[in-house]
Amino acid sequence: MSEIKVITIDGPSGAGKGAVTQTLAARTGFHVLDSGALYRLVGLAARQSGLDLLSEDAVASLARGLDIAFEPAKAGPEPLTIWLSGREVTHQIRTDEAGVDASTVAALPKVRDALGDLQLSFRKPPGLIADGRDMGTVVFKDAQVKIFLTASASVRADRRYNQLKTKGMDVSLADLLDSISARDARDSNRSTSPLVPAEDATIIDSSDLSLAQVHARVWSVIENSDLIGANVNADEVETTDGP
Asked: In the chain, what are the domains?
């Protein structure tokens, strides 16, 4: 497995991980793992099943049997269409409530174990770009390139606010900032797989950078790794949107 190249993009919610992951996938042809979506799906399925999100054994058992599918989106702002038990839930799992639920179940060691093998199964030729919070520290420790993408809580709240307003949703910037700050604290202080950069990760703060600038910095790291020549397209792709 180790010969299959892996790029990990870790960091907090709203730092721009998803957008960078998709631009890199388009450029490299690598597969994509949105690990955060897996935990959001577990949280959603648990709520739909009427489970207590802190009932570790029950939630872990549910996680092992989930019927999940990811498909490239044909249109719209989301790059992937996400299915749970044969029903599309792409937008349902992108709400702030789903994010809080994901953070809650992700703190449960047995749930993380239950999803471990599923995450590893995404490592297929020609390579994988894994987006999450512990991809470089726990799941793919041998990844050839590790990026930790971050941004200030206020910038991330503002990005999320603008994103939701564009979708016509009535949201409070102050509430979003409180939610993001609380989630940061929960993710960084949990005993299992806390949100921290891998020792060999390159840390990039996207607070004042466009997506094109973040992509350029990540690509410079890739150019200095042994990924070049491993079916990676060295041609530039256009990345003009912000994180």
From this structure: 5-223 (3.40.50.300)
